[in-house]
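Design request, tokens follow.
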């Protein structure tokens, strides 16, 4: 039986050292890819407070300092590596993680595929 090809969702080159990118996955989920200090994480694009999308403008997910993910609806702040809310009405809750990996060619793909 042949292995199933990985689902490539983006390329590493699409993200700067500190950047974020919103994507719509083939399975219907809206996700955000975020890289802060070169580490890539991915989360479902939904605030745990009210279930709304995190951004007000396309691909604007980080606060002004570029260190934390920010919900545009109410200003909640989330750690980019764990998705934990560290400020705001959902403090202590987490964004839903999406497992991704980066292959040798710089393709960001859903992990486990």
């Amino acid at each position: 039986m042949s292995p199933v090809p990985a689902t490539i969702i983006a390329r590493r080159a699409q993200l700067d050292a500190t950047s974020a990118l919103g994507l719509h996955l083939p399975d219907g989920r809206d996700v955000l890819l975020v890289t802060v200090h070169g580490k890539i994480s991915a989360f479902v694009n939904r605030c745990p407070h009210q279930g709304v999308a995190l951004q007000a403008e396309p691909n604007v997910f980080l606060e002004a300092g570029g260190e934390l993910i920010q919900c545009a609806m109410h200003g909640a702040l989330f750690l980019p590596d764990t998705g934990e809310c560290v400020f705001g009405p959902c403090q202590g809750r987490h964004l839903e993680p999406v497992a991704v990996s980066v292959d040798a060619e710089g393709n960001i793909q859903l992990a486990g595929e």
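Comment from the thread starter after seeing the answer: thanks! The mean pLDDT is 90.
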